[in-house]
Design the sequence.
């Protein structure tokens, strides 16, 4: 009996648990979608576990932890400061536009977090290794990826010279969230999509600031 219990415990730890967000739960109420949703969530979980295995390497874990911390905001502050240094007052309007769009992204991110209440991978799956302290409780969507794509698209549109630096960093930020056990691949993908979609508001926000504030 003891042997059976130990085997059962081991299976429980190694078997990917499927814990979808309320959105997936709502979709699964339709019998026609239930099977597809289950397969999709299982794939999402399995890929998350596979990517997180790289965190067992100390060098890889340390590298992505640094990337994640820089993605907290410090890297983007440096990009904005560099833009102002090189472009002077011409950069003020683009930077203000970027910050306002970023604020909109933060609002969307906060709303989705409390509405979907999806647990982070390490909270659900014992095989997931937590490599960095999370900034909040819930997983969906990835705010780091949302802001990384948003800043790269916005600043890259105004200052293309920064793209060779920002694009690789954005990719590394997205990877870091999965390697460190903080997000599922779908969290990262949807975060990236939201960040990019919000940049379509940039022309309107840019015009609004230009007409409202006396910026030369």
Sequence:
């Amino acid at each position: 009996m003891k042997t059976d219990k130990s085997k059962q415990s081991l299976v429980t730890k190694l078997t990917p648990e499927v814990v979808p967000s309320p959105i997936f739960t709502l979709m699964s109420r339709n019998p026609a979608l239930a099977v597809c949703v289950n397969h999709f969530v299982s794939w999402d979980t399995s890929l998350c576990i596979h990517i997180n295995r790289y965190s067992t390497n100390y060098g890889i874990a340390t590298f992505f932890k640094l990337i994640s911390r820089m993605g907290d905001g410090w890297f983007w502050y440096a990009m904005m400061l560099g833009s102002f240094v090189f472009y002077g007052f011409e950069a003020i309007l683009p930077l203000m536009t970027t910050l306002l769009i970023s604020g909109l992204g933060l609002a969307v991110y906060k709303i989705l977090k409390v509405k979907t209440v999806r647990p982070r991978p390490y909270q659900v799956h014992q095989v997931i290794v937590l490599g960095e302290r999370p900034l909040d409780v819930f997983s969906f969507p990835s705010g780091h990826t949302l802001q990384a794509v948003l800043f790269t698209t916005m600043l890259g549109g105004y200052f293309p010279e920064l793209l060779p630096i920002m694009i690789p960093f954005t990719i590394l930020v997205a990877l870091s969230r999965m390697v460190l056990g903080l997000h599922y691949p779908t969290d990262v993908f949807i975060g990236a999509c939201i960040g990019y979609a919000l940049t379509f508001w940039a022309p309107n926000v840019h015009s609004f600031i230009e007409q409202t504030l006396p910026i030369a």
About this structure: The radius of gyration is 20 Å.
